[in-house]
Here is the input.
Amino acid sequence: MSTSTLSERRDDVLHALREKYGPLAPFLAIAGGAVLVVSGLLSWSHIDRVLQNISVRFWPAGIQIYAMVLGVVALVLGVLLLRKTPWLDPGRGLRATGTAAVVFVAMALLAIGVTTDGLINANEGGWVALVGAVLVVAAGYLTAPVDLDVHAWPRLSSTLEIVIIVVALAALLFLTAYTLDMDDSWTFFLLILTILGVVVALLTAGFGEYIGFIGQNNRRPLVLAAFLVAFLFPFTQGGSSANMSIAVQILIFAATALGLNIVVGLAGLLDLGYIAFLGTGAYVGAMLSNSAFATVGWKPPFFVVMLCGMVVASIFGLVIGSPTLRVSGDYLAIVTLGFGEIFRLAMFNLDGNTGPDLTNGPNGIPGIPDLNFFGFDFGETHTLAGVPLGRFSNYYFLLLLLIGVVILVFARLNDSRIGRGWVAIREDERAAEAMGVNVFGLKLLAFAVGASLAGLAGTIKAHQDTSVTPDQYIFLESAFLLAAVVLGGMGTVAGVLVGATILKLLPEKLREVNEYRLMAFGLLLVLMMRFRPEGLVPSKRRQLEFHEEDEHLVDLAQTEHLEEAK
Amino acid sequence: MEFAQQLVNGLTLGSLYALIAVGYTVVYGIIQLINFAHGEIFMIGAFGALSTWLLFFDGQTSIWVLPVMIVGAVACSVLVAVLMERIAYRPLRKAPRLAPLITAIGISVFLQELVRIGYNDPTLFLSDWNPFGFPSAAQKVPFPQIDHISNEFWNVGGVIIQRSTVFTIGALLICAAGLFYFVSRTKTGRAMQAVSQDPDTARLMGINVDRIIVVAFVIGATLAAIAGVAQGLQVTNINFKMGFLAGLKAFTAAVLGGIGNVWGAVLGGLTLGLVEAMAVGFIPGTFGGSPWKDVWAFAILIIVLVFRPQGLLGAKVVDRA
Here is the structure.
């Protein structure tokens, strides 16, 4: 009870302040933004070895530039606030920018304090930036929230829309290459904070929905451009394999998570043992490879191995699915968890002493050779357009192809009778059955399709990792996969890709906090479910499910629906 | 002889499972939530007992230390369980089914890591500041062995009975009796039964449902803490990962007995323990023995869930997927 009165009182105060000082907000925002921009030109620390070199005046580098970026965003939002565009709410954007800027400056000062002997080494730049950031926050809170009018979106010509998409994606490629180049953990962290701040600011200000709307109108160019960007990524790395190895990890993880997304996101079947299917594929790939430790004598070409991986995994999926799909919800989750554990234990035990010799037990199958397609050796470095592309780049392209296939399968299924059947089952099983949906068959199909995709990814993973051991397939990995799906947004491809990237990239880049990786992961799951259960990039349907009372959202969904129908 | 020995082993293991399983079942019975993090409550109980011993009785092994250790264990477990309910689960009570389950996985991972990193380093990052001198929980930590309870055994006609076995089975008997009294004789216990049968009507009858839910978590945590002590005495060491497998098997036990039914949990725990022990002793060939015992336990879980989801005692199954 007391909390509600407290928040009510806070609202009252806020309201009064808005009445009195509201008209000042745009100017505060512009001033704050300008101060932030200026702070980038000042010196932040007189020691030049902290956070790259931020000691020189009028020579912005590293975090000084990030502060200026935040300042520019605040400036732009402030100007937009003066113009009063009906489909934008710059106030909310300013709140996000300001909050991000405050946290950013605080973390920067903390970094200076921690990496040197204390805050005494901070120069005027940081403190000036703090003032600017506080001004921006104040501007954000002094602006009353606006009801966005989604019908007022400007209609651009389709060429212009495609140009916007291409420019946005090119910026994404540049930003990715730039971010990944960052070796300093603190600077990386602050960069992520800046990016997050800007993105959230643009999203909350109403740009996100508009961009989403443009994307919806030009889906095909968007997907093609995204693939082109992903394809160009290895060329930005100049032959270095450090980031490419992470990228390959992300792609394998993402491909598997996309498979899980069919099972969980579309059909709504919670699978907590999904990693077993990836493991099945990997073991099949290893056993049929040219490794000296392979336990099966048959060495077919890799295309056959991929097929075998898919078939075996989907058979496992069917075997697990056919009896267990009679149970639903939590019970299904637990049953699949049980199967996942059985898989791991079986791989651990089938070493010849406690069972037939299939997997070499805990030692696994090491020494799996690189792939070789018609003489194209994946282990070698190839040069294309003057850029050397190493081993990881080769696997990267293969996996990109695989993800393309998975996305295609996903998209086609999603739009088909089968996909609609799955969604119907997810929403209400009994109603779906009453409408003539073959519930059991479709559930089984979801399991088999999901499993076969994971099996396919597994065969490639085996070659890429060069060894397969049972301890790669523990329950925690299933939890990670599920987290990628949930974090990104269930049932959307973009969401899963975002989720997989976050979950694999951050621990690799933030080496210094690696110890806390799992703890942060656990906390992240709890906070996500509490504050944004629909994920970062939710499908509209899911979002509505979690926020039924949000009228703005309903309006938005209807507008998009109408637009699509035209 | 072999059979009698496995019977004893099975009953011990089963008592442990039963103690933990009650926690799953009481919570599920009331809010249909699989409290996946319950295994971690069991683990925290064991560490709570160890902490109590290290703080107050370091080096002593007399038997009077044991009750204090149990109190410490229960205090820690109950505290964590109540916080967990309040902070993580309560806000999700109206959310779709998936949300609390994922939250539970998150809590489970978080608590494991908290103990792993934070046990000898309460600040989580200043590893040289360790005010209580606790050992690192990243490896196995030896659990104090109490006189007259552990390290000794009776040999009854060739069957070896550890003293810790007696403690475990005794703990189950006492807890079951206490639980019986609580559930059927006290006002709160009967309120709990009412809520599990029909929460809305119970609320109309003036029962504070939120309070009853907290009570359910407290009961589960208490029994899990006692199980944690029993496990420590029996295995002689504890570690931050001990809750996962034990929790999973206890959940199996709860389902086996009929989830939501307290006596089912006890029966299911004992059955599962016996089956596991017998599988170790009597399944011939390469698929027998201890390497495969967990596989058999999970196989039972799957078979029961698929063919008799209502469990042995046939509690009602709420299908709210």
